[in-house]
């Protein structure tokens, strides 16, 4: 995992076979915001919707949550997530990063206060926040 140089825009994805949460973030502010939830069919996203988001936000890279089991082993969805990342890279030439997303859905549910509306986008936001915290720690100094 290598941090982008200077200020960068990021898109975060919480991939699922039925829904894909999307968030946008900035390295300069180290913040992320939930954007939307995309619908997927049998694990296939609507690529034109993703292309539209990429054109709008023009991210320098994308960050995708990679599920692991609670003991750190591979999750059954992990290969599908990596395939999604390879397709993002192949179709759009994007730098793709992965970050452990364990418990992001539980935290997203807590932040969404029990409603499922926006849950996937909030999970994508948490994934981006985790990546930003790990690659751009807040050490008290100016960026």
Topology:
Elements: E1 9-14, E2 19-26, E3 31-41, E4 44-45, H1 47-57, E5 61-66, H2 78-92, E6 95-100, H3 104-111, H4 119-135
Parallel strand pairs: 1-5, 5-6
Antiparallel strand pairs: 1-2, 2-3, 3-4
Helix pairs in contact: 3-4
Commentary on this structure:
The chain has 143 residues and is α/β, with parallel strands linked by helices. The chain has a single domain, classed as 2-Layer Sandwich (Nucleotidyltransferase, domain 5). It has four helices and six strands; from the N terminus they run E-E-E-E-H-E-H-E-H-H. It has helices at residues 47-57, 78-92, 104-111, 119-135, and strands spanning 9-14, 19-26, 31-41, 44-45, 61-66, 95-100. It has a six-stranded mixed sheet with strand order 4-3-2-1-5-6, sandwiched between helices. Helix 2 (78-92) links the parallel strand 5 and strand 6 (95-100).
């Amino acid at each position: 995992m290598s941090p982008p140089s200077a200020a960068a825009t990021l898109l975060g994805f919480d991939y699922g076979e039925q829904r894909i949460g999307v968030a946008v973030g900035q390295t300069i502010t180290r913040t992320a915001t939930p954007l939307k939830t995309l619908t997927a069919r049998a694990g296939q996203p609507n690529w034109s919707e993703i292309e539209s988001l990429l054109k709008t936000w023009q991210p320098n890279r994308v960050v995708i949550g990679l599920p692991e089991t609670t003991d750190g082993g591979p999750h059954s969805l992990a290969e599908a997530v990596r395939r999604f990342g390879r397709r993002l890279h192949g179709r759009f030439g994007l730098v793709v990063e992965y970050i452990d997303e364990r418990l992001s859905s539980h935290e997203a549910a807590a932040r969404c206060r029990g409603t499922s509306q926006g849950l996937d986008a909030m999970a994508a936001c948490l994934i981006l926040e985790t990546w930003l915290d790990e690659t751009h720690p807040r050490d008290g100094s100016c960026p």
